[in-house]
Known about the structure:
- The chain is an alpha/beta fold.
- The chain has 3 domains: 7-86, Arc Repressor Mutant, subunit A, CATH 1.10.10.10; 93-163 and 256-280, 3-Layer(aba) Sandwich (D-Maltodextrin-Binding Protein, domain 2); 165-253, 3-Layer(aba) Sandwich (D-Maltodextrin-Binding Protein, domain 2), CATH 3.40.190.10.
- The protein is built from 9 helices and 12 strands.
- The strands form 4 sheets. Strands 4-3-5-12-6 form a 5-stranded mixed beta sheet, with helices on both faces.
- Helix 7 links the parallel strand 8 and strand 9.
- The two termini are 43 Å apart.
- The model has no long low-confidence stretch (mean pLDDT 91).
Amino acid sequence: MRRNLDMTALRAFVTVAETGGVTRAAGQLHLTQSAVSMQLKRLEESLGQPLLERAGRGVALTAQGEQMLGYGRRILALNDEVWSRMTDQAFEGELTFGVPDDVIYPHIPNVLKRFAIAYPRVKVHLISSLTARLKRQLARGQVDLIMTTETGMDQGGETLHIAKSVWVGAREGTTWRTRPLRLAFNYDCMIRSKAQRALDLAGIPWEMAVESDSTRTVEASVSADLAVHAALENTADNHLVEIPHNGALPELPDFRVNLYIADGPQADLAEKLAKMVREAYIE
């Protein structure tokens, strides 16, 4: 006799596997931890296979679990696509979403994927730019929602995360020891003025070695050890590293990762995407 998979239990399993733990999965699924655990147990019992093993504070997939995860993702994607297309609950329209380069990863790709599955009739235009430019576009009504990296927050915004800013340079680079300190920044970079101010207060002379509209130009110059840069912790290009200056350079301020939603006809739809962004930042 053919048997059917429990879709609720399958979604719980996939969410736990993707988030790395029952607690985070429960937050995304809006369920209690015990409810998620019961669904996992139900799926394992129905299949007669162990899918997960406890690993410290998280979970690890068994060999059977790794295989089931691939099946589960495809089944849920098809289920969600059918549900969205065959019901009247899907929205229609377009959204323009602005995100600074340094906070696109690790969350935004998965957010966009989830949103596309939930609302397949909505086209999302992703704009990657600097915070100052995104805020100008928001004020002009050219974007529906934006994320920013800034030390404060304007009215109407909400803070998703507090991020530390650090000095970064080339691997095994030595330019950070030279004086005046050579800097490389985009023209509108929000960290630029904060870094310059910190150097002034510390009495460290500096000069702008590279100024550009291109993030790639800045990264290439810094990776060649022609200058140093400042960025949010763990967001720098793979060719750059946090400088081990041991206090030779001043500490930099923390930055807020903020979210803003524009007023207008798309505000309700933008809130649906914003909700998924918030969920991605839940720890």
